[in-house]
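Request: Have a read of the protein record below and say how the chain folds.
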Amino acid sequence: MRWRGLFSGILALAAAVLLIGASRPKEKDWSATVTLSKEGFHVRGNPNAAIRLVEYASFSCPHCGIFEMQGGDELVERFIKPGSVAYEFRPFFLNEIDKTVSLIAYCGPPAKFFGNTTLLLKRQHEWLRSPNRAQAERWSDPDWNKRVRAMTEDLGLYAMLAQRGFKRAEIDKCLADEALAGDLEKSTEDAYYKDGVRGTPAFQLNGLPVQANTWPALREVLAATMKGFV
């Protein structure tokens, strides 16, 4: 009888633990939340987070690709997903490739932006290359549409973005947005002359420039900042 009573008590305790666990509200996953900043840039995570991280990145910058491969997943899981950090991405043009690839990154609704950027940066080593002579001629065509479509084709980006459900006609429509390219070019100039951005990747944390420009270094800065805010 004593063992039967003890066993019943254990079962009751286990049931209580399960009940408490089931009634505990599930924490919100902020990684799927995408908004636009007042400047018009995409922001991933809790827009009201105490910590705001801004990245200036060039799609043709190898260091930006390395940063994404080393820290992209951890940045999302450890800092963005719980709602601790709002992450804002600002394209920074170093060359004509950046113009074209940035327009591709902007394809689709805002919710697709960070999936596009992750794909383009993580697989940068697959598509980024210098043009041969024939490609260079196509890339310098005075017709905007012919130029950006040739670049997209030669770099294999039509096929890569098809993996995210984009059809060629949809990508061509995005590539035709010269006004957006002009806006992003202006924002690059502002970043250079007003914010002192001289290379990529570059970061701001709560409006102040951060010297760290690698994931291991930035991770330490973010972790230390979280202790003061979260």
